[in-house]
């Protein structure tokens, strides 16, 4: 399964009117236009291996929830720009912070984050309340245990 470390909905915000992005290929040193589905992805990036088929729970039940909420928040933002609600801002800030970490080098960190906060997010309590206290405590605990975010 193809996992995008830069979500397709977010890439589309930067696409030209034809829906394509200008992409620089570092190996070939050329520019080309590609659809967001073809950019910033890796097969089974966030999948757990070890069974007959990779477990996609991080992608399907954690990151897809974050992406869905963030996509809706970005769509609402222009209409409430003068006074956005705290929950709307929290969704965007959470997405932005996760996006900073959501690269192939941080696969382990994202999986651990999903394990700690996924239950709260899947139940909707994190988004409805606008708080991230249990998730924040979990992330801080990871840093205290010495889990590294990069590589």
The main sheet orders its strands as: 1-4
Number of domains: 1
| Number of helices, counting only DSSP H or I runs of 4 residues or more | 6
Distance linking N and C termini: 23 Å
Oligomer: single chain
Compute the gyration radius: what is it?
Answer: 17 Å
| Spans of at least 5 consecutive residues with low confidence | 121-151
Nearest-integer average pLDDT: 79
Structural write-up:
A hairpin with a 4-residue loop joins strand 2 and strand 3. The chain has helices spanning 8-12, 57-76, 86-101, 107-122, 125-129, 133-145, and strands at 2-4, 21-25, 30-34, 41-43. The two termini are 23 Å apart. Helix content is 50%, strand content 11%. By secondary structure, the chain is mainly alpha-helical. It has one domain (2-145). Strands 1-4 form a two-stranded antiparallel ribbon. A two-stranded antiparallel ribbon has the order 2-3. Mean pLDDT is 79; it is low at 121-151.
């Amino acid at each position: 399964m193809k996992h995008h470390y830069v979500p397709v909905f977010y890439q589309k915000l930067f696409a030209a009117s034809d829906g394509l992005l200008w992409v620089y290929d570092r190996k070939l040193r050329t520019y080309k236009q590609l659809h967001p589905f073809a950019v910033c992805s890796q097969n089974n990036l966030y999948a757990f291996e070890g069974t007959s088929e990779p477990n996609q729970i991080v992608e399907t039940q954690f990151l897809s929830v974050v992406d869905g909420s963030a996509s809706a928040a970005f769509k609402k933002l222009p209409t409430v720009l003068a006074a956005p609600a705290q929950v709307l801002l929290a969704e965007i800030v959470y997405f932005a912070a996760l996006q900073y970490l959501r690269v192939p080098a941080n696969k382990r960190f994202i999986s651990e984050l999903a394990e700690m906060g996924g239950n709260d997010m899947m139940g909707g309590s994190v988004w409805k309340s606008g708080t991230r206290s249990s998730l924040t405590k979990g992330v801080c605990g990871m840093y205290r245990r010495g889990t590294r975010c990069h590589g």
